[in-house]
Amino acid sequence: MVFTLTVFTLLFVAFTIVLYLFLFLVKKELIFTAKHQSLFSIFLPILLGIFAGSLFITTGTLDEIVRGVAVSLAIISYAVNGRGIASDRFVIHPLDNRGIKFDEVDRVVLFRDEKKNEVKMNFFKFGLRGPLMKFSTPMDELVKFLSKHLKEGTPIDVVMEPNNK
User: Fold this and answer.
1) Where do the TM regions start and end (predicted)?
2) Are the CB atoms for 152 and 114 separated by under 8 Å?
């Protein structure tokens, strides 16, 4: 049995390794990591299990198996949560290497959801609303961090849920 891999498979494996290195470097840089909630992250392991099972049943060569594993890892990379707040920017997507710099933000709105025990944060850049991010971090830690790192005079609006007891 000869173990040979095509150039394409080797390049794809190298790409997948570099992709994961980048994703984990971005994740390591985050100070506050946003919660990741989507149906994609629930169904992905099930679909990947079906794909991996069919891969090992139907393929015969080492090249096809390695390529299938690399494809599976590339698909799983979308489930890596890399959203949050870094020391100098908001990271809205794990593959966005620039993010939204704190100097570009006009306003930040924080909302404390008591039922889900989370803080929802939204920011505005040039008058346009950015994506909603959810954090399990206490509100006071986020306010302290943002007040130190946002540009001088940037309003931080804190919205509290009324107590109807």
Assistant:
1) 6-26, 38-59, 65-81
2) no
